[in-house]
Amino acid sequence: MFANVVGGGDAETAVAMAQAAEEAGFESLWTVEHVVVPAGYESPYPYSTSGRMPGPETSPIPDPFIWLAYVAAATSTIHLGTGITILPQRNPLVTAKAVATLDRMSGGRVELGVGAGWLEEEFRALGVPFEQRGARLDEYIGALRALWSEERPSYHGEFVDFTDCFCQPQPIDGRVPIHIGGHTNRAARRAGELGDGFFPGSADPELLAGLLGTMRKVAAEHDRDADAIEVTTGGLPDVAAVERMAEMGIHRVVVPPMAFDADGIRRQLETFADDVISHL
Q1: Is 242 exposed, middle or buried (0-12, 13-18, 19+ CB in 10 A)?
Q2: Rounded distance, CA 15 to CA 70, Å?
Q3: Tens digit of pLDDT for each residue in 184-208?
Q4: Is pTM, for the whole model, over 0.70?
Q5: How far apart are CA 4 and CA 13, in angstroms?
Q6: Burial class of residue 165 (count of CB atoms within 10 Å of its CB; 0-12, 13-18, 19+)
Q7: Per-residue pLDDT tens digits for 67-125
Q8: Contact predicate 166/152, CB 8 Å
């Protein structure tokens, strides 16, 4: 479930939502990210025909890692995902430390969704080049994995370069699954080449079929097992829709917030669990 927006930005509601989702049998919580939303932005939002994000520009979007750490302390089994974090905007060493710390303290529950980003005005405000953000994303993924798994981590690239930098703690399993976000062919290719998972932000069956085909083709070209790349998408499906998605090879469906207050969220999650989750 997408969780850190709408009412989920409030501390009491966030904890109530996370606990209710865990009790209802939801597998994971996912956070969205924008550090800033520049007023009057002109970059087209890629997940809406209007080209605008849902809600007003002033809608609260809590920091994903702080939000997940907060609810991690109030839960015990539900997975904690970013869907997605805009990795090219972040220092990869600082991000590696934050993610590994969250993974350690939550008992290995982190799923890291990453994307290249689309909001050029936000990059400009942060002082990060918008150009080559895809190449920067690829390098940052490599740097994260080195920092999480190597005894004396080193990485040498165009955008990040370090040698023998201890970065402790490391994740519990020496890795955190990295899900590639985006519903473009470039994102699908990146998932096939680099991803532990693929998170196309669309529930359109025709679009998904094409993207999954591309992801699997590229995985095969890189001698990777495409079936091991976990596929996540969004939507508010019924049982039949979930079953169709499973037949396509989709492993997880992330649903939107279903209410705006703690009591309403709990009721809606319980209803969804009864109507959908219990039949799967």
Answers
A1: middle
A2: 8
A3: 999 999 999 999 999 998 888 999 9
A4: yes
A5: 10
A6: middle
A7: 999 999 999 999 999 999 999 999 999 999 999 999 999 999 999 999 999 999 999 99
A8: yes
